[in-house]
Every structure is written in C-alpha cells, then in structure tokens.
Design a protein that fits this description.
Membrane topology: Single-pass membrane protein
Function: Plays a role in maintaining the mitochondrial genome and in controlling the mtDNA escape. Involved in the regulation of mtDNA nucleotide structure and number. May have a dispensable role in early maturation of pre-rRNA.
Structural class: alpha+beta
Shape: elongated
Protein name: Mitochondrial escape protein 2
Subcellular location: Mitochondrion inner membrane
Distance between the termini: 125 Å
Number of helices: 29
Number of strands: 18
CATH superfamily of the largest domain: P-loop containing nucleotide triphosphate hydrolases
CATH topology of the largest domain: Rossmann fold
Radius of gyration: 51 Å
Largest sheet: 6 strands, antiparallel
CATH architecture of the largest domain: 3-Layer(aba) Sandwich
Number of domains: 4
GO biological process, one term: mRNA processing
Strand content: 5-15%
Length: 838
C-alpha cells in the first residue's frame, strides 16, 4: 500500500507560544489551488487572457473575501498568487497542525464556505471553479508551456503502476488513457502520458501534483508534471513522409486544381489583353487625344496616303482578294499562304489586317525553332501569346519530383510533362482567351447596334410628330368617300406586294439575319502563324501541335487562321490535322514582267521619279524577276541616283558574294559546317547556270549526291534552290530566286572560281574512281586464285560464271581508268589556268 507523504513547508514560528494548559501547537503553511478564476490560456495569441488581466484585481480581492471567513484550525491567508496562464490562483495559508487531518478538514471547510457564499469568482461571472489542496510544490511559471488535455508525468525514482496513477489523478477529472512507461536513453527519466477529457482537469492535476512524492516501502518516487502537446512535434510531417503513395497524388491534384482555378483564368485574361491591345499605350484614349491635338496637327499632310504600288501587281492583288474573301465568311478550314521568301506575303497580310481593323494574334515559328532547348521553346511561345504568369522552372522541379517519386514509391507521380503537353497547355489557354475576345467584341457590336437603332427610332418619332403637326393645320376633310379611298389604297398595296418577286421579299426578311452574321464574322479574331517551316530542333512536335490547334480553331469557328510558309510542302501537317476538309490554298508567286514593271514605276512615281523604261532597262529589270525583295532593293538604289542597269548589276554582284559565302563557305572550316559539301553545291550551280531547271531525280542519283536527299532539302531551306513538285513528288530544281540564274552564270564564268571548284570536284571523282579500281583489282585477284588451272588467268575457261564476272570487272575498271585519265588531263589544264590567272 502506497502512503502519501504531504510536502508542506513547515515553518516553526520563532518564539512560539506555549499554552499553559497543553502542549506547544505547531504552526505550518500550506497551499490550495483555486481553478477557473481566469481563462486557461491555450496559446500565445489567446486574446481571452486580456479579459482576465483587466479583472484580475477584482477577482483576487473577491476570492480573498470569500476565503477569509474560514477559521478552522487557525486558517489564515498569507498570500494569493494568481496563475492566469493555467486559469487559477495559488492561495497560501497558515494553520495550526493540531491534528493529523487538519488539511483535509480545512479543504472541506473551504469548499463548504465557498458553496454557501455562492461559489468562487470567475472571469465569466459563472461559479464553476473549486478548491484543491496542493499535494506537491506550487510552480507558478510563465514559460510558453500552455495547457493541454495531455500531461506527461515523469518519475524520478521507481515507476508507478497505472492503477496507482489512476487513483491519484481520477479525482481531478475523467481520464481517457494512461500509457505505460517506455524505454528511454540512459540518464533520462521514464514517464507516462495521461490524457484527460478536459483541459481544466489536466490544469488542476498539473498544478496540484507537481513535485508530489509517493513512497512504496523504502523507496520514494517524485512526480514531475508537464503539459504535452495534443499533436506531437513534426507529427504531420512524419505522417506525410511516411505515406508517399497517398500524399504525392493528393499534392499533384491540389497543384493542378490551384493552377486551373487561379492561374489559368489570369493567363487567359492576359492573353486577351494582348490580343485586344489593353497594354498598348497607343490605344489609350488619352494618348490618342494628345496625339490628335499635337503631333497630328503638325504633320497633317502625312495622313494623305498615296496610291499603293501593288495596284498593278496582279498576283498579289489576287492573293489579297482571296484572303479578304476568306475573312468575310465564317471559318470552316485553314488558309495556307505560301510563296518564296521575299514575295511579299507579310506585307500583303499586314495590308489586309490594317483594312479589316480586326484583332489578331501572331505566332512566329522562326524564333521558336531556333531555340536551343525545350524550355526556351516553351518560354518563347508563352511570350508570343501573352501567356503570363509563366513559371519556367516548374518543369525542372517537377522532373526532380518524379525522380524522387520513383525512388520512394517505385513509379512516377506524373508531375513532369513532355514538350508536346507543355505547348498544348499554352495553346489551350490561348484558345479560351480567343473565345473571350470574340464574345467580347460581339457584345460591343450588339451594343453599338442597339444604340444606333434607338437613335433611328427617335429620329423616326420626331419626323412623325412633325408630320402630325402639319396635318392638323390643314383641317379635317369630309368623311363621305374616305372608306372607298382607303379600300382602293389597300388594294393597290396588295397588288404591289403580289407583284414583288418572292426572292426580294425573302431577302428583306433575311436582311437582319445577314447583318447579325456579318457582326459575328467581324467579331472573330485572326490568328496568323508565320514561318511554318521545318527547321532545327523539335520542329515536328511544334508544327504538329500548331496544326492541330489551328484546325480546332477553324472547325469550332473560334478564329480565322492563316498559316504562312515559304514552301508548299509544309502544308502536310495541316492536311493531317484536317483530313476531311481541303485547305484554302493561296499562292503568292513572283510577279511577271508586266506586274514587276508596273510595281517599280508606281514606287518610283510615289518618290517623284518619273522614269520611262527603255528596252535595255526593261531587259535588265527582267533579270531580277518578280521577287518583291529584289524589286524593293532596285527601287531604293534608283532613288539614291543609280541607273537601272547599274543597280541591277550591283544586285547581281552582291548576290555572287552572298552565294560564295552561303553555299561554299569562306574557308575549309566554314565549309565543313555547311549541311552540304562544296562539290554538291557546285554541281547544282553549274547545272542551273546553263538550264532554267534540272531534273530532281537525275541530279539525285548522280555523283556527289548518290541518293541522299538531305543536302538538296537543306539547300532549299537556305533558299539556294527551289524544288518543284508533280503529283506530290519532287520533280524539278530551279534557282531559289530568279536573279540567282544570273548569279550562277557569273560564278561559272569566273575562271578562277570555276577552275578551283572543278579541280576540287575532279579530285573527289578521281578519288572515288581509284577506290573503285582497287576494289575491282582485289576481286579479280580473288577470281584468279579460284581459276588457277588456266594458262591465262583472265580467260577462266574452267568456269563460265567466273569468266563473265571477270569480264564485267575488267570493263568497269577500264571505264574508271578512262575517267581518271580524262579528269587528270582536265586538272592539268585547270592548274595552268590558275597559274596564269594568279
């Protein structure tokens, strides 16, 4: 049986009185804990404590008054120590230890007197507290150890069993659980955790029993109490790290939800702002007003636009008409504008956009295809579309999380996305923004239409009121024949309606519908995809995603889509995306001689240069062909004072230098970086210098291509050549520009350049032929060993098959040797030419 030993502090009063009729009475001090006087503080930011602070003085005085009436065993209050953190007050008192049960008697008397006085004072005004005798040592501390329903009871000595702890703690409140002591490191005290149902019970037990000593036989155990947090430190973190298969999918879902609900609407709004020029200063009304009243007044004459120089350009005018027709109807397919670089595609489209005054979004594939990494490609597309905010680092972080997920749960969390998925995500948000642009513009048009109708109604009403006032001044006529006249008028109106064609009447009824259709078409934005070409990097993925997106925009009638490319072959991606609908193809070729001449004359006339082209000048102009960029260069040079002949020669000479650099390289190191060899470039240049076009198959099968199409495709991409098609297959090869025909002729007529390139070309052919001859000789030697019985090994009479093979190899070797000898002679002459010229 455990016996409780109270730890009351014994104070022997000096000079204690000795009663004449009995023994000396010992005066001792003890303490009681009064709970629920103040609010129990649950944390640092518990604002209820301020209420207790404001009422502390009154509550303490009221408590003193109620307890002072007790006089059992010489009860006398020595001090009251508020302990607001735990909601109570420590009441220290002195008493006469005239019996063993003095403290129990005092506790019972205190509770009875308090109950008779209506209970203890409380911060809420409700008497819910009680008086508890402190069995341990009062500890009035103000550390950040806030009350909780769980207290940790540490044992400084032998462990105490659950039954004993329960009997000791149960009077203070209902207990949910008591844990057994667990092993602890050496030097640390073992402990049990006691979970009370209420925080008030835990606060009472902690303040009453802290420092209490329990004896069991010859051993004594001191109890040390401390609040324990309901949730252990890092418990949430430990649980999350211990359940990755649950946590990671939930995190992915939450991040996706956050992106979808917060960032995607913001990004859609930013894209809409870019399309509708919300952030363009020139579109602000204040800026327009300021410009109208300042700069435009000073340069009023500049507003008068001269006639366009393309009025006489038949090819461009036809293409422009086709684009306008496409934009005038609801989109059902994609328009594909193709033509060689410099043919004026961008200028033509810009002219149409300026005239239509519709909102547009331009995506330039050129800079995107030049991106050195997928991250830069995605960032470039986001910048062009106005996709913001864009977190470029998230893909790298997601990739690292996927790697960590593989190590934790054995599978990816699905957070990292591929390049196609990232591009598709940006374009999906852009699609939503384009829908908003169309609906917003349509609402604006409807609003303007309603305002116009109201104005017309008001004007009509004013006219009727004016007509009525005039009619009243004329008086009232006789009513005798009025009915007959009205019947006659009705008959005339009926006959007029019957004579009106049905189509005209139906057209009048459909006119409002047609007006609404026109407004619906005008509200659609225009999407232009420029430089739709295959290039370095992930071009296939980008073009495929853009093609599918363009097809979706046109099929759902969200926007008019115009794709611009230099090569007609690049429409294959669009054809795959729209398998059931044909593309709207618009070709913008070089202008013919008449259109080019009219274009140049008009441009010069706009510059106040009235030039009458002679036959010689027209002949020189024909050398440029109809390429817009070359014609613009000619016009610029003529404006600066050059003659037409001189300007054309200057353009050709400049083209010679450009071809030498771009097709052959400045030196050997530069030539090695080209996607073709010098021999391949010289073969094409030499053939095209003498023919307007050459066969694609013929040059592909001959040396130095030997069936490799990549160099030819790269030359086409560099605009050195233009590959024509027939029935969908490559058929012919032409110069990349009309002027290149004359450039190629100049290169061929340059004796030094021709000799250098022919010499290098012949050396390659000789090396190839000698390699073949060595292979023939080796095989003939093998055949000789197989026919050793013959007197002349090359006859091979012992085997007809070997004989035929030998004759074939001999003929091939003879042909190769003849070619080598011929080329060696040519090289000798070429070397002499180089020696004489240098």
């Amino acid at each position: 049986m455990l016996r409780s030993v109270p730890r009351s502090v014994v104070l022997l009063r000096r000079g204690a009185r000795q009663l004449s009729e009995g023994p000396v009475v010992e005066i001792r001090e003890a303490c009681v804990f009064v709970d629920s006087v103040f609010p129990i503080q649950l944390g640092r930011f518990d604002i209820r404590r301020y209420i207790g602070f404001l009422r502390e003085e009154g509550l303490v005085q009221s408590l003193r008054d109620r307890l002072s009436s007790v006089n059992a065993h010489g009860f006398h209050i020595t001090s009251l120590e508020p302990h607001p953190k735990d909601g109570g007050v420590f009441v220290r008192f002195a008493y006469k230890a005239d019996s063993e049960n003095a403290l129990e008697s005092i506790e019972q008397e205190l509770k009875r007197r308090v109950q008779d006085r209506g209970g203890l004072p409380s911060w809420l005004g409700m008497s819910s507290g009680n008086v508890w005798m402190v069995k341990g040592i009062p500890w009035n501390e103000d550390m950040y150890h806030f009350a909780s329903p769980i207290i940790k009871v540490a044992f400084e000595g032998p462990d105490i069993h659950q039954e004993s702890l329960y009997k000791l703690l149960r009077p203070y409140g209902r207990i949910r659980d008591i844990t057994d002591p667990i092993p602890v490191p050496a030097g640390s005290a073992r402990f049990s955790t006691v979970s009370f149902q209420k925080i008030r019970s835990a606060a009472i037990a902690r303040n009453v029993l802290h420092g209490f000593e329990m004896s069991s036989g010859s051993t004594v155990t001191r109890l040390s109490t401390k609040y324990e947090d309901p949730i252990r430190v890092h418990a949430i973190r430990d649980w999350l790290s211990g359940h990755p298969k649950i946590v990671l999918p939930v995190v992915v879902f939450l991040l996706g939800t956050l992106t979808y609900t917060i960032f995607d609407p913001l990004r859609s709004l930013m894209i809409q702002g870019k399309v509708e020029d919300w952030f363009d200063v020139q579109e602000f009304k204040f800026y327009q007003w300021l410009r109208k009243n300042t700069v435009d007044r000073l340069y009023l004459a500049s507003k008068v636009s001269p006639p366009t120089a393309t009025d006489g350009w038949k090819e461009r005018k036809e293409a422009e008409t086709a684009v306008r027709a496409y934009l005038a109807d609801l989109p059902t397919t994609v328009t594909f504008v193709h033509g060689p670089q410099g043919s004026g595609k961008s200028t033509m489209l810009q002219t149409v956009l300026d005239d239509t005054d519709r909102k547009s979004l331009t995506i330039d594939c050129g800079p995107l295809l030049q991106s050195s990494s997928d991250a830069l490609l995605v960032r470039g597309l986001a910048k062009q579309t106005g996709y913001w905010p864009f977190f470029s680092f998230l893909n790298s972080v997601n990739h690292l999380l996927d790697l960590a997920s593989m190590g934790l749960i054995g599978q990816k969390a699905g957070m990292s996305t591929s390049l196609v998925e990232q591009l598709q995500s940006i374009l999906d948000v852009t699609e939503d923004a384009l829908k908003s642009v169309g609906s917003s513009h349509l609402r604006t048009l409807y609003k303007q239409t309603r305002l116009a109708e109201k104005e017309r109604s008001k004007a009509t009403l004013r006219e009727k009121q004016s007509d009525g006032s005039l009619g009243r001044t004329a008086g009232v006529k006789s009513e005798l024949n009025t009915g007959d006249k009205l019947l006659a008028v009705d008959a005339q109106l009926t006959n007029a309606d019957s004579e009106t064609p049905v189509e005209e009447r139906v057209g009048k009824k459909r006119k409002p519908e047609n007006a609404e259709d026109v407004e619906a078409v005008q509200s659609l934005p225009i999407v232009i995809i420029k430089n739709f070409e295959r290039g370095p990097g992930p071009s296939d993925e980008l073009l495929s995603v853009l093609a599918k997106w363009a097809a979706r925009l046109s099929e759902h009638q969200i926007a008019h889509v115009i794709v611009v490319s230099d090569n007609r072959e690049n429409m294959k991606s669009l054809t795959k995306a729209l398998p059931s609908k044909p593309l709207n193809l618009i070709a913008l070729d070089d202008a013919d001689t008449a259109s080019a001449l009219a274009f140049v004359k008009q441009k010069l006339k706009d510059a106040d240069i009235d030039l009458q082209f002679s036959h010689v000048q027209t002949t020189y102009l024909e050398r440029l062909g109809g390429r817009s960029s070359d014609l613009e260069t000619l016009i610029h040079k003529v404006r600066n004072g050059q003659q037409v002949e001189e300007a054309v020669e200057d353009i050709i000479n400049r083209g010679v230098g450009e071809i030498q650099k771009s097709a052959f390289g400045d030196d050997e190191d530069d030539a090695k970086r080209l996607p073709w060899t010098r021999e391949q470039a010289w073969m094409v240049v030499k053939r095209l210098a003498n023919q307007p076009e050459i066969s694609y198959s013929e040059i592909l099968l001959d040396f130095p291509f030997k069936g490799d199409e990549a160099p030819l495709r790269n030359m086409e991409h560099a605009e050195l050549i233009s590959i024509g098609t027939h029935l969908g297959r490559p058929s012919t090869i032409r110069p990349g520009k009309p002027i290149f025909k004359w450039v190629f002729q100049r290169l061929e007529k340059d004796a030094i350049f021709q000799a250098t390139q022919d010499l290098a070309f012949n050396e390659k052919v000789i090396a190839t032929a000698e390699t073949n001859i060595k292979a023939y000789e080796q095989e003939l030697s093998t055949l000789k060993d197989m026919g050793a019985d013959t007197s002349f090994w090359y006859n091979f009479s012992s085997s007809s098959v070997l004989s035929q093979r030998a004759r074939y190899l001999l003929n091939k070797a003879k042909t190769a040797q003849t070619k080598v000898e011929t080329l060696e002679k040519q090289n000798s002459l070429l070397k002499k030419t180089l020696a004489q010229r240098t």
